[in-house]
Amino acid sequence: MLVIGIVGIVSALMAVQFKTMKSEYGILISIAGCIFIFIYSIRGLKNIIELLEHITSLGNVGTEYIKILLKILGITFISEISSDIAKDCGYAALSNQIQIFGKMSILLISLPIFSEIISLIGTLLS
């Protein structure tokens, strides 16, 4: 966590410093900091996957649901980072569209889970 904090602060300070001279350098430094933090964060994903596999082996949960959850997690990360970068560059409308697309993608991917819940409720009620 300390490494992420240091990289974030250094990237922000460098981006602000270079933004006064040439704004495109500030944006590039900000993007580089975001990419570094994202790649560094992915290393912890291995532990999450192992925990989800353990939970899957304990219960009667199918692996397709775990795959859906991981896809949703990836979409969330990518759309949030992309939206923030677009917002930092001054493109608020593009940022909002990225967020909307991310939410729609999550809804589309989660439809099998919703249909499974609906069929489960139907079998419980009958």
Describe the fold and architecture:
There is one protein chain. The protein has 126 residues and is mainly α. It has five helices and no strands. The N and C termini lie far apart (50 Å).
Question: What would a concise description of this structure say?
Answer:
It contains five helices and no strands. With 126 residues, the protein is mainly α.
The low-pLDDT segments are none
Structural class: mainly alpha
Run of helices and strands? HHHHH
User: Radius of gyration in whole Å, from Cα?
Assistant: 20 Å
Q: What's the story with the biggest beta sheet?
A: none
Q: How much strand?
A: under 5%
Oligomer: single chain
**Global outline:** elongated
The percent of residues in helical segments reads over 70%
Mean pLDDT: 85
Distance between the termini: 50 Å
Strand tally, please? Answer: 0
Write the layout of secondary structure elements.
Elements: H1 2-21, H2 23-42, H3 45-58, H4 63-88, H5 92-125
Write a concise keyword list for the protein shown above.
5 helices, 126 residues, 0% strand, elongated, mainly alpha
